[in-house]
Structure formats: structure tokens, C-alpha cells
């Protein structure tokens, strides 16, 4: 029984700790949807409306803040945007990104990478 608990504990620890590859974050990200987790309300872009986030190796540009650049770093499984917000990286694939943050409500954003 001790072996089963030990193996289960190791599996749980390994599955909870995923590595974030900084190189996968770099690029242009188009927000495809926003989900208000508390109300389950989904917001989709309307018409030609775009919300594109630019991430470089040393800065991030978020459209709603104008053309201000913020520094960023990865801490564990979160993306810390200096002097702005910390977002939890729920999923990161080479062409898809899902983040969650809690600022005036718990929100989940889904992004699709734009190929250049």
C-alpha cells in the first residue's frame, strides 16, 4: 500500500509541475475568446475587431494600454507582467495559449498564434 501511495504522490507532483518554454511565448498572439469564469459569459471578437498581444524576448505590448511596453518574466506557471498583472498560464502550445487572471473578476483568455 505504501508503494501505491508513493507512486501516486510522485505522479501527482510531476503532473502538476509543467515547464513553461519561454521561446513558445514569443510572437504575436490574437485573442480568440474571453470567458468570465464567474458568470460563464463568453466574449468573442466582433467583425474585424482584433486584440493582438505582442511578446518579445524582453517586453510585452498589450493593446488596451496603448503602445506601452512592459517587461515580463516567468515565475513557476505564471507570466508576471511588471507593474501590471500576473496571469496563470493554463495551457501553452506552439500555436495556442490559454491564460487566466483575476482582476475585477476571474477571466480566461484564449489566444491563437499569428504566423509571420
UniProtKB/TrEMBL annotation:
Highest taxon above the source species: Bacteria
Put simply, this protein is called Lipocalin-like domain-containing protein
The species this protein belongs to is Gaetbulibacter aquiaggeris
Amino acid at each position: 500500500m505504501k508503494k501505491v501511495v508513493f507512486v501516486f504522490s510522485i505522479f501527482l507532483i510531476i503532473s502538476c509541475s509543467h515547464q513553461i518554454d519561454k521561446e513558445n511565448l514569443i510572437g504575436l498572439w490574437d485573442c480568440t475568446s474571453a470567458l468570465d469564469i464567474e458568470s460563464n459569459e463568453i466574449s468573442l471578437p466582433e467583425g474585424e475587431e482584433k486584440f493582438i498581444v505582442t511578446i518579445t524576448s524582453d517586453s510585452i505590448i498589450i493593446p488596451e494600454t496603448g503602445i506601452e511596453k512592459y517587461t515580463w518574466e516567468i515565475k513557476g506557471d505564471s507570466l508576471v507582467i511588471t507593474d501590471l498583472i500576473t496571469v496563470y498560464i493554463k495551457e501553452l502550445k506552439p500555436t495556442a495559449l490559454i491564460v487566466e487572471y483575476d482582476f475585477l473578476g476571474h477571466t480566461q483568455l484564449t489566444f491563437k498564434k499569428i504566423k509571420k
